[in-house]
Design brief:
Length: 405
């Protein structure tokens, strides 16, 4: 092993990095039927239309030169316009291409924003639990992550304001719609209040909203960004959930001044988004495929969600609690304290099923304090596998609960 000294940030992110290694190992193990990842179903990936689009546009007579050459650090102009037309305007967000930065995957927005705003030791407030992959990024940038109180509807605004004052926080991070990992959605009045806190304390409200368009039930909720009056809210979204993870594309929506600053960080990082993916995605929107595939996605995932919740209610042990997500990818479960989900996961893996134990998703707690929690994904597996796997996991959990008595 080389006798070299790593940067301090590697130590700061050690625990979350180790967890993320295991997460990706589970997602990519071909022998495991996983409820642990956050991937789209194979059947909704737009491979057939991409075959058609790629053949036409990745040629010298089409958009080949544009795709294969260096391009604008902001991202392709027509893709930024497509984001406005197809994703923002329909949800009541007033924005133009000048408000859009195309990024290399949704998480790059978090990295660029941290590079722009965060000094070592600065505080970022999050939900409790929160998206562990993002906390990995925050810790890499040497931020201190502080969790805020949450209830069944998400962030408790009074506690957020208290902690803004207590820690002189720089950023409040939230996944407000079908949140990761819980599936909960923040009510309208709390969204408005968060935007107002950003203005009042002159801090950034970072609205991570990659699941917003994948809705199965309930009323469409306005974005936090739509309530912002001072440019203190930044929305970060990904195309991984509504197009394809392999495209490595996402976008940020912000005040033009912030977008220009993010562009400078982007240039210093990797110059531009992946041009081939950008051209293919722009054409995907222009040719009307997005709405068609979104409808297909919603129909399929709703069936998976319903099957998962129904099977949980039938086979999970007495006293368990779960969320009822109106969209997105996940159901969050709290088992009785007698059920250790880290041990339950080990037992399930003997039968080639896996999921994510939830203890590590609480930023300021020892994982053992919440070892009765778990995140289950319902988008990747077909309904019959969901029913089989959740029934098995439920029976194993019941056995564990009985053993503890």
């Amino acid at each position: 092993m080389p006798n070299v000294k790593y940067a301090k940030r590697v130590e700061f992110m050690k625990d979350t990095a180790m967890y993320m290694r295991g997460l990706f190992d589970n997602m990519t193990d071909p022998n495991m039927r996983s409820f642990g990842g956050g991937a789209p179903a194979r059947s909704v990936l737009p491979m057939d239309c991409m075959e058609e689009i790629a053949g036409e546009v990745l040629s010298d007579a089409g958009r080949g030169f544009e795709a294969f050459q260096y391009s604008a650090p902001f991202g392709l102009a027509d893709l930024r316009q497509a984001v406005c037309d197809h994703l923002l305007t329909p949800t009541g967000i007033e924005a133009g291409p000048e408000n859009i930065q195309i990024v290399s995957g949704g998480l790059e927005s978090m990295y660029l924003i941290c590079q722009l705003f965060i000094e070592p030791g600065d505080v970022i407030l999050t939900e409790d639990p929160t998206f562990i992959h993002t906390t990995d990024t925050f810790k890499m940038c040497e931020a201190k992550v502080i969790a805020c109180e949450c209830d069944d509807h998400g962030l408790v605004i009074e506690d957020v304001e208290k902690k803004i004052q207590e820690y002189d926080a720089k950023i409040v991070y939230t996944v407000p719609t079908f949140g990761n990992p819980t599936g909960r959605s923040l009510p309208v009045e709390r969204r408005k209040a968060l935007a107002e806190l950003g203005s009042k304390y002159n801090i950034i409200i970072l609205e991570d909203d990659p699941y917003r368009d994948v809705r199965y039930s309930g009323e469409v909720l306005p974005a936090i960004y739509s309530f912002d009056k001072t440019g203190n809210t930044i929305m970060a979204c990904s195309f991984s959930k509504i197009f394809a993870p392999g495209s490595r594309l996402g976008y940020a929506v912000a005040d033009p001044e912030i977008i220009y600053a993010l562009r400078d960080i982007k240039i210093a990082t990797n110059s531009q988004p992946p041009g081939i993916s950008e051209v293919l995605l722009a054409e995907y929107f222009h040719r009307g495929y997005y709405e068609k595939y979104l409808a297909k996605m919603v129909e399929l995932y709703k069936a998976g969600r319903d099957a998962m919740m129904e099977t949980m209610d039938k086979f999970f042990p007495e006293g368990f609690k779960r969320t009822t997500p109106d969209g997105g990818y996940y159901v969050w479960v709290e088992f009785p304290k007698s059920v250790s989900t880290s041990k339950l996961k080990e037992r399930a893996q003997e039968y080639k099923f896996t999921f994510l134990s939830g203890g590590d998703w609480y930023p300021n707690s020892d994982p053992s304090e919440h070892d009765n929690t778990a995140r289950f994904n319902f988008t990747t597996q077909p309904v019959e596998v969901i029913k089989e796997g959740i029934e098995l996991i439920g029976k194993l959990a019941c056995e564990m609960a009985a053993e503890a008595k």
